[in-house]
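Hi R.,

Here's the input for the 3-acetylpyridine adenine dinucleotide complex you asked about:
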Amino acid sequence: MLADATARRERAGEVGTVFDAVVVGAGFAGMYMLLRLRGLGFSARVFEAGGGVGGTWYWNRYPGARCDVESMQYSFSFSEELDQEWNWSEKYAPQPEILSYANHVADRFDLRRHIVFDTRVIAATFDEKAKRWSIETDRGDRVTAKFCIMAVGCLSAPNRPSFKGLEDFRGPIYHTGEWPHQGVDFTGMRVGVIGTGSSAIQSIPIIAQQASALTVFQRTATWSVPAWNEKLTAEYLRAAKADYPALRAKARSRPTGFYFPFNTQPALEASAQEREAQYEQAWARGGLPFLGAYGDLLFEKAANDTIAEFARRKIRSIVKDPVTAELLCPDNVFGCKRLCVDTGYFETYNLPHVRLVDVSRTPIERFTADGIEVGGVEYPLDAVVCATGFAAMTGSFDKIRITGRNGLTLSGKWRAGPRAYLGIASVGFPNLFMITGPGSPSVLASMIQAIEQHVDWLADCIGHMRDIGATSIEPALEDEDAWVEHVNEVSTVSLRSTCSSWYVGANMPGRPRVFMPYIGGFPVYVQKCNEVMSGGFDGFVLEGAPDSNAAPRVRYTGRWRVPIDIDVISPAAVAAKRVPVV
Ligand code: N01
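And here is the predicted structure with 3-acetylpyridine adenine dinucleotide in place:
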């Protein structure tokens, strides 16, 4: 009996060292991948560096952390029962609630028995003879798997700038992306926040409520739109859930992978008065959909100037001190960097104990024992919060020594910028997959939708490989090159490629400047993935398959095979039309 039970657990991947698949990370991507692998009967082991599931939402516990995609859409869509049984409490869910949701999913689908927590994968090496991956962890595990699936997240490797004198500072230094689990009480403290991206925008108003003095060090002023967050009533939830499948379907057809009303008219075709009214209405709705006020805002500089000027006027009307207001007014393209969504961010600067220090031209010089020095002035501080973001898209891969065929390392191959076919796989690394990797819509779409689409595609791919007896799959070099070129080309159509954002790796010194996510739009990308699959994994080389011409069986990707009207007017569709998909 005991031997039977052990054999069953080994087959499932709950114990042992030999698996069909190893998944790195137990965020939303890792959890859903595990569920699908298990559904296909594969043995799978997940390694997770954190002490629990949730990924981003496990680590980013800074004050005010919440999602800025509306809760009803920032959740898994694969299970109608799950959709119906979970109740979000607010329009934009706070981090603890999203983490509870992740835990609920783990429990509901009984995922934990395959996940090893507090264990970081440090190396993955391809054994060419065995055609298997050998995976090592920081706790001494050594396991092998046919497939190695990187569910490591796009924004998971914190950027900790190496300021001079860091070790001299007597107080604590926190990073928003690695926040202490017990929380931090800043009551009565003089706090410095470095950075003004999404994490800073969310945490600054809350920290200001506790701190006796708050100093914000701003390198680039940020565009932010009010969230107008609110509690969701039982009535709202009932109505929304009654129509949930329709909402999910609409979301899948949108370039961002989530639904919001979108005005297709070009801004420049409207009169100044019409634009003002439209922007006022969109501002009153708030959030990321503000960018949907007109169809050409991210494509025509003159159109973008109109929304930028409107938003600057809003900042000036909120912030009372004119010098601070001017410092807070960005001078770059509106929405070029990731648009922020806030609750009381600009208002915070009206508080007497909050000040803004411009470090754009005079950077932070050093940390001292008692604070931070800029331009010869020391700002006294008891604690510092680095809201300095992440080594986006590739940072989490760089933390693992990934070695493919002929000793090729992934970080070596990607030194001049990431290269991956569809953001799913990379030449030289057979049977290694990435979920929402560079070259896929990922961070430009609602992450959970992007994750689900990738996982479903991978599940069908791996299922097909088993069906036909294939031993390995790897992109063909010319297809990978063509895709990487296409991703670059399509990015140039958008104004988003014009500023120093983390999308292009420009937030950190020394990183190559390459537009990493695919900006052609989620539906366009999904259609391409579907075509690749229908064509028997076009652009991939499958080895060891005597029956490689068999049509792949659609197990999980069916729900992504919806007819898509590429003419759905949207920024991304415009881009995709100008630069046809390869
Ligand atoms: O990081 P960021 P984040 N000296 O890179 C500044 C997602 N997210 O953690 O702009 C001084 O945006 C840097 O300045 P600059 C979302 O996709 C989502 O805030 O590079 N300053 C910038 O101001 C988001 O975009 C949610 O000139 C330095 C800031 O630090 C992404 O995560 C919530 C510096 C970093 O901003 C990252 O957001 C939070 C230096 N040496 C995050 N180095 C929601 O869903 C960096 N900076 C709501």
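One thing worth noting: The radius of gyration is 24 Å.

Cheers,
M.
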